[in-house]
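Posting here for the record, re: FE2/S2 (inorganic) cluster.
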Amino acid sequence: MITLTVNGERVTREVEPRRHLIDFLRLDLGLTGSHAGCEHGVCGACTVRLDGEIVRGCLVLAASLDGADVVTIEGLSDSGEVADLQANFVARNAAQCGFCTPGMIMTAADLLAHEREAGRGTPSRAEIREHLSGNYCRCTGYQAIVDAVEDTLKARHPVADLGRGTAPAPRSSEATR
Ligand code: FES
Ligand code: FES
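Prediction output follows.
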C-alpha cells in the first residue's frame, strides 16, 4: 500500500511490487496523458515530474513512491504553468501525431523552470535541443518543437538574447534564491 500526492491530490493504492509508475498512472489512476512508448527509458514519452525533477515513468517502481509528489501532464496543464508553452506548440504546429507531446512539454517545462539556475543564463537554441535530446519524436517534429520552446523563452524573458549577446540581469525574485 502506498500513499502519495498526484497532481495535488492525495492517493492511496495497493500496488504490485513490479508495477512501474507509468502503468500506475495510466492503468490504476486513469491518467493517460503520459504515454508509454519504448518502456525501456529511451524515448521520454513517459516523462513525469517526481519531487520536482523529471523522471522516466517506465523506470520507476510505484511501490517505491510512498510519500512522493508526482505531477503529470494533466497536473501541469491544469495549473497553467505551461499555458504559454502549449499555445506556442499549437502556433508552431509542434504536435504532429502528438504522441511525444506530453513528454516534450514536461521536459521543456523543466528547462523553463530551471533555465537560469547556477548562472547559466538563458538557454541558447542548441541548449534547448540538448535538453530535449532524450525525448524522441517519431514524426521528426524537432524543428517546430524547438521553435515553440524558444518562443516561450523569448516571451517570458523579452530582454534575453538566447545566446546572441549578453545575458540579462536576474529578475528580483531570482536574485534572492
Ligand atoms: S516509455 Fe519510458 S522512456 Fe520510453
Ligand atoms: S508528434 Fe508524433 S511522435 Fe512527436
